[in-house]
Amino acid sequence: MSNASVLFDAPGPQALRRYKITAAVTVIGIIAVIALVVWKLYVEDQFTAERWEPFVTPAIIELLIEGLVDTLLAAGVAIVGAVVFGVIFGVGKLSDHALVRWPSWTIVEFFRAVPLLLLIIFIWGLQGFPLGTLVPLILGLILYNGSVLAEVFRAGINAVPKGQSEAAFALGMRKNQVMRIVLLPQAVKIMLPAIISQCIVALKDTSLGYVILAPGLTFVGRAIWRDFANRLATALVLAAIYIVLNLLLSWLAEYLQRRMGTPKVDLVGGIVKTQPDAGAI
């Protein structure tokens, strides 16, 4: 008897017919919805050449590239700042000193709870930024995503087996040495998928700069659809760019996971060695 039949009864002829009918109706329904959407867009003249022509115009392409550069700049600075923020306050939340632990808890929980859009608008409202609206966007992204990453780092450090830190303390290491040399390197491997996922979130959240007119793809898109009245076409093009950027980040995460590998314990002559996965480069 197969494992599948142990968990549930095999469907009979009538059940198989119902499954096939349900699947067919679902597929037909999805096709009908897609056809309805396409027809509606066609009636609204959303497929005409004049709505899509701007995106093959050199001047508009150059404008989109400038917006892409601004978006990548904001995302890059925000991601680096958020990781640094997360490490500092994630470790701070694990401190034995109350004067360090409780302020770290307060800062992380506050900025993690505040909606990002409101945080960006509040920072922008403070004014006094000589670099314009890009700085409030970056600061908002750092504070929010850094607070989320602080929880990720704290959880990752706690996920490292207690024996690792106990062995390090037995060798005479101080707590900061244990954290820096033993716990953090192992925790990063555990946290890597969550870190990359939060980096993707930070990249997508750069689109919120649209509200405060910060330079970026959405700011450029605003100018394009206002001039050419092609809001849908502009939204689809910008969405495609963001999807490509997110896919690149996802592939980077997979590469780093293969590169770092998962440690495997190998006892040779009483000495514990770690080896990367076979798929590691």
Characterise the protein shown here:
Helix 6 (116-126) crosses helix 7 (134-159), helix 9 packs antiparallel against helix 11 (231-260) and helix 10 runs antiparallel to helix 11 (231-260). The chain is mostly helical. It has one domain: MetI-like (MetI-like fold, Orthogonal Bundle). The longest helix has 35 residues, at 58-92. It has helices at 3-7, 13-43, 49-52, 58-92, 98-113, 116-126, 134-159, 162-170, 175-205, 217-228, 231-260; strands spanning 264-268, 271-275. It has a two-stranded antiparallel ribbon with strand order 1-2.
- Could you give the order of strands across the largest sheet? 1-2
The amount of helix comes to over 70%
**Number of beta-strand segments:** 2
Q: Determine the number of helices (DSSP H or I, runs of at least 4 residues).
A: 11
Q: Uncertain segments of ≥5 residues (pLDDT<50)? A: 262-281
Brief overview:
With 281 residues, this protein is mostly helical.
Labels describing this entry:
4% strand; mainly alpha; MetI-like fold; flat; two-stranded antiparallel ribbon; 11 helices; 2 strands; 281 residues
What are the SSEs and their pairings?
Elements: H1 3-7, H2 13-43, H3 49-52, H4 58-92, H5 98-113, H6 116-126, H7 134-159, H8 162-170, H9 175-205, H10 217-228, H11 231-260, E1 264-268, E2 271-275
Helix pairs in contact: 4-7, 4-9, 4-10, 5-7, 6-7, 7-9, 8-9, 9-11, 10-11
